[in-house]
Amino acid sequence: MSAKWLVALDETHRAEAEKLIATLAELDCPDPEAWARRQLRDHLPQVSRLLLMRHLWSDSINSWRDSELWITNLVEDSEDNPEGPFSSAGVALARILDSGADPSDIAQLARFIAYQSVFSAVHTLDEGFDSDRDGELPGWALVERDPLGNITGKVLAGLHNELPSLEKS
Fold this sequence. Notes:
Elements: H1 4-7, H2 11-26, H3 32-42, H4 46-61, H5 63-66, H6 69-80, H7 87-98, H8 103-127, E1 143-145, E2 151-155, H9 159-162
């Protein structure tokens, strides 16, 4: 911990920064020191931002690659209920598989599509307003909660800028 910014802090703030760096490192942050510095300098809720983005990667993006069971399920559901929701996707998947496609290739493509969807949603959250109705209607903000569920008032912003940095192929 020889960074000039860290050494320049008073004892109380240095201890806070070191604890934050340790927490971020434990959470597998790509650059704990830089993230801690941003939290202290810009008052960004970096731990909450990291937790949310890690959750998005593991549950909303990588899950499409990490299990191919969804492919089988979607094909079978479309056969069992041809009029059901997304049955046309199941039919399309069946044709793709019948043409010799490897399910792992389909899963990789699905992961990319999931990433694009998550990125778009996060970007929309970051914008905080409907650009077609700006100034006419209320907007939105994603805010941090403390461990007891109380709103801290800190806004989780700029998520779309950091989401790509957490990609681990």
